[in-house]
Batch of 4 targets.
Target 1
Amino acid sequence: MKKIITIALLIASAVLVAAGCAAGQPSAVFAKAVTVCLECIGIG
């Protein structure tokens, strides 16, 4: 039972990652990550 849940979650996460990549989200996430990092070190 535990193995089935693990496989189901793995498949669901892969589908969601693929959907996000198809929608062009990696660039938006990267831009937000850069902004947060720059704010943490006091540059942005």
Note: DSSP finds two helices and no strands in the chain.
Target 2
Amino acid sequence: MTDTPTQPDPKTPVTTPEPSISDQGSWYVVHTYSGHENKVATTLKQRVETMSLQHKIFDIVVPTRNIVTVRHGKKEEIREKIINPPQFLTKKSQPF
């Protein structure tokens, strides 16, 4: 038995998978003034849309977590920032 390499069929097109948006880019930290993280992130999202930069900036996230507390016998859900210095994360293709 001989080992012969198999040749691809020339009629079959060879396709390479395109990277998804989640695979593209790197995460960067954006520093802001304390208490302005959500406003700056919302403004940046609007600017990305109006300037058609969706191909460069893929995602903008303010890291938060939901905490359930009980006050006066009622459950309250509070949103708390995870990162202490005022900052948020953005996933983009390259630094500005």
Note: The CA atoms of residues 3 and 9 lie 18 Å apart.
Target 3
Amino acid sequence: MEAKGPYLYVSVLRTGSEGEAEEIVPLCRLEFIWMGEYLWGFWFYSAARGRYEWNVTMKGRYEGSPEECFDCAALAHLTGAPSRISGTVY
């Protein structure tokens, strides 16, 4: 994770099988939002476009807890199953 201003960038290190290189996989960007409670705006990393795009979590909201945002991004990026996520992924 890396913090820059109001944003928190979340990435994971994907290890390859023997002989394959490790790679850093960007998952999402969280934006701190105060709306009477602590919430985080969810920006999904689109590998196809090479940028972060505002997106919905699996609960259909543009904001959520850090855990909800991470779960949504990790499911799509690490399992290859974006069709299991509600909302626009790519």
Note: Residues 84-90 have pLDDT under 50 and may be disordered.
Target 4
Amino acid sequence: MKLMILGATGLVGGHVLSKALASTAVTLVITLVTRCMLLVPLKKLARLALY
């Protein structure tokens, strides 16, 4: 499943992002962000597209 998250650096969006990256059912996560996302572990960045 592909997932798009708007506001992934906010409180709710950050929680949704961490759950999505932990799930094996999610193959790609696309996010629209305005702040830096340094809290995402590097091994999970392969499935994350930042715009």
Note: The helical segments are 11-22.
